[in-house]
Each structure stands twice: as structure tokens, then as C-alpha cells.
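Much of what follows relies on a compact textual record of a protein's fold. The record below shows the convention in full:
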Amino acid sequence: MKNTLVFVVISVPPLVIIALGLALILDHLPAKLKPVFRTIYFVSYSISVTAVSAIFLWLFNENGGFINNLLVSMGILGKPINWLSEQPYAWTSVLIATVWWTIGFNMMLFINALDEVDPSLYEAADLDGANGFKKFIYIALPQIKHVAFFIIIMTVIASFNLYGQSRLITAGGPEQSTTTLTMSIQNTVFGMNQLGVGSSMAILMGIIMLLVTASQYFMSYRKKEVN
């Protein structure tokens, strides 16, 4: 459970913030270029977790991995880093793989939300001399806050269900530090044949996710009432 919560804490902010940043960049591109870059950023989401894990196993391999070879050849590192068998590098590898793999989905949701913002609001802000930051804070963000809240909830749920990346990239190591709750449930049921214990763990996980989602909804509702 602790490992799962660690991943939720370190993965949700970049998965939301980077996706929003990419969406804002694409929103300001010429209309002809938008479909091209949407496809580029979204195509990784269509790749299976097995293929993604194979790619990042090659990238972060200690011996002959692309990242180590690049950093050592540039003189940034004196010796290769054991990305997959030492902390905090193991979590870093899983996090980078997850962000690269799933960032396109959140980005597309943000782009669709930004497309729904009334252009006349931006025109009025331009007449008042508002810069890009103020237009984002006072126009774009309030208009897309409900979509952003939905994305945060879905990202939290997805991070709670981390399995494939840590299973295939780090094998739950080092010293089970990247073994998540889903991996533990799978091992309890299929590895140790303890169906009752595994079912109880799964139910507990569902209850925790329900409480987290409900608390997020409650905080959003109270904030809406205050406004």
C-alpha cells in the first residue's frame, strides 16, 4: 500500500501538469499543425504496456542502456547508474515510462476542453491588455476546471492500479520497493493460492479508491459552493 501511495503522489502531478502544458502549446499552434502533433503525442497511448516496458528496459539498462551510454559519453556521469535496481532511480524509470505512455490521453481531454472555451473571452482580454498568463488564470482555467477535476480523479485511479510497468520494468524491486498493491494481490491469489486473502485485499483497495474519489469530489463541491 505504501509503495502504491508513493507512486500516486509522484505520478499524478506530472501526468496532469505536463498534459495541460502540452495542451496549451498545441492550442496555440496553427490549425494545420494541430492534428499532426495531436497524433504524435497520442500515439504512445495506443502501444501495449509490454512494448512500452521493453523500450524502457533497453533505455535504462545499466549495461549498454541508451541513457547510461549517452550520459557517460557526454561526461555527465562518471559511471553508469543502475536505474532498475536502485532507489530512487527505479521509481524514476517507472514514472518516466508511465508519463510517456499515458500522457497523450490526458492531453487530448485538455485540448478538447480548451477548444470549448469561447474565443470572445480571449478577444475581450486582449482589448483589456491581458497577457497570456492572466488569460490562462482568469479565462482558460475556470472554463476547464471541471474537466481538470475529472482528469485528476481518473489519473489517481489509474495510478492506484499500477501493475504492468513495475512488473515488467523493475520486477517489483529493488527489495520489493516498487511492488504495488495490485502486484501483491496477484501474487497472493495466483502465487500463494490464497483466494480469500487476495479478495479481501482487492475489496480494501476498492474502498480506499472510493474514499479518495469521494473526498476529491467533496472538496470540489465545497469549493464550488464557496465560489
Notes: The mean pLDDT is 90. The radius of gyration is 21 Å.
